[in-house]
Design a protein that fits this description.
This protein is α+β, with helices and mostly antiparallel strands. The chain has 13 helices and 10 strands. Strand 7 and strand 8 form a beta hairpin. The longest helix is centred in the N-terminal third of the chain and has 21 residues.
């Protein structure tokens, strides 16, 4: 079923918009809604919430163009200063951002480490992963999302916090218990690998959500590339954390899917061959300029549709409204109370990219000569991330020998192949935190059997 729009307007009429595209791609603007009213109501509804956004590190308050930009490690060639060059650069960016075998293995080992602690404390509990690690849509610094299922009247957050600290998995200074959040979680950083984790209890739909995203990734081959670019875009602007009102990975992915579902080219069977630069610019345009957040909600079920938020009073309290694919009537984006900042970032990104890829009418309007990377003017990979990935590559065997190993490391089991060569373990301290050789809880560490299996199974033939 193709994406449908019901008999109401999904775009605010306050905007005067002209476009050279085929009119079939867009819905005409003729509503009478005022988006500022929706913003004021939304602001009042969340006036008691704490807003603690960090200032943007680069450039202006929303958009961050970088001139020049040396921090584009994904570059493999000289890109043409047009939409074709942007497409090629997005492909290279996504390829560079994809996790290496070493990174996937270490994350699997960290999950197993937590599993052993949980099963020691609660033998009948069930531990599962979800989120970006499950789907493969994670950045080098992304958290691992873990959910623990068990029979408790109240989530044992403090008990698990104490066990993680006692086992030296988490440092007391890095572990936080967010027991007042809508979904209480434990946030920590693994003391050995510096990988971050979010642990929750008995959140039933999270595993189904990961399975749904995996299904959508198979349906839309371009989805993973667009999501990786957009996740980095939000991350560097500190707009990606839901617990401070940002736009989370799950909602962001569904927004991309909704845009792809509504694309007329999809109905003509040409979306798989679409230019990634065009899709990225259209995403920024759609959600930064044309989408009417005040009146419209997003639904991806049954081929996708937009619906009027007035149909459900509970969905009018938030600016961004996305219906839960597994629980109709539930708004999964209601916690993104700072969506108006995200919208402004999308709007400015659209303005910038459009200017960058279209030939200027005046030489003074030329953008590209200022940089050799169009995408690099919007997203940036800090040097510390590059250094961290090299550190993982050079030290992963040493760390893996100290960690327990699961039967399956990741969403991609093909990495667990026999080795082609053996390497001597290295041990270098990560500048962000020292590797500890102190006494740890042996139940959460690698046994001799784990070490033997590591020697026989793991490989190290990938590179950053």
């Amino acid at each position: 079923m193709a994406m449908t729009c019901q008999n109401f307007n999904i775009f605010p009429s306050a905007m005067k918009y002209t476009s050279g595209r085929d009119s079939a791609d867009f819905i005409r603007l003729n509503s009478s809604g005022d988006e500022s009213n929706g913003y004021n109501c939304h602001k009042a509804a969340h006036s008691k919430r704490k807003r603690t956004y960090k200032p943007v590190e680069y450039g202006g308050p929303f958009l961050a163009p970088f001139f020049p930009n040396p921090d584009a490690p994904w570059k493999t060639k000289i890109y043409s200063p047009d939409i074709i060059g942007l497409h090629n650069e997005i492909e290279d960016f996504a390829r560079w951002m994809k996790p290496t075998k070493e990174e996937m293995m270490l994350r699997g080992c960290v999950v197993e480490r937590v599993k052993r602690i949980v099963h020691q404390q609660w033998p009948t509990a069930r531990v599962e992963i979800f989120g970006s690690f499950k789907t493969g849509l994670y950045l080098p610094t992304s958290d691992i999302d873990i959910v623990i299922f068990g029979e408790w009247t109240q989530a044992p957050l403090r008990t698990l916090e104490r066990r993680l600290v006692e086992s030296h998995i988490a440092d007391p200074t890095t572990i936080k218990v967010l027991d007042k959040a809508s979904v209480p979680i434990i946030k920590l950083t693994d003391s050995l690998t510096k990988i971050k984790l979010d642990i929750s209890f008995n959140t039933n739909n999270c595993v189904k959500s990961a399975e749904k995203i995996s299904e959508l990734l198979r349906q839309y081959p371009c989805l993973d590339k667009l999501v990786l670019v957009l996740k980095q875009f939000l991350l560097q602007r500190h707009l990606n954390e839901v617990f401070v009102g940002g736009l989370g990975s799950y909602c962001l992915t569904l927004m991309v899917v909704a845009k792809l579902q509504s694309c007329p080219r999809r109905r003509r069977g040409r979306l798989e061959e679409e230019n990634l630069g065009v899709l990225l610019i259209e995403f920024f345009e759609f959600y930064g300029i044309r989408f009417n957040y005040n009146n419209t909600g997003i639904r991806i079920a049954d081929g996708g549709s937009f619906f009027n938020k007035s149909e459900n009073a509970e969905m009018r309290g938030s600016m961004l409204c996305i219906e839960d694919p597994f629980q109709p009537g539930n708004d999964i984006a209601r916690a993104s109370y700072s969506m108006f900042i995200v919208k402004e970032a999308f709007k400015l990104a659209y303005t910038w990219l459009k200017r960058a890829v279209i030939a200027p009418s005046k030489p003074s309007e030329q953008v590209f000569p200022l940089t050799d990377s169009i995408l690099g003017t919007l997203v940036k990979v800090d040097k510390v991330i590059v250094e961290y990935r090299h550190w993982i590559k050079n030290n992963w065997i040493y760390m893996a020998k100290m960690l327990p190993h699961p039967e399956s490391y990741t969403h991609d089991d093909s990495i667990a192949t026999p080795p082609t060569r053996r390497e001597k373990p290295k041990k270098d301290a990560w500048q962000g935190g020292e590797l500890s050789d102190g006494t740890t809880d042996q139940s959460a560490e690698a046994s001799s059997e784990d070490g033997d299996r590591l020697t026989d199974e793991l490989t190290s033939d990938s590179s950053v």
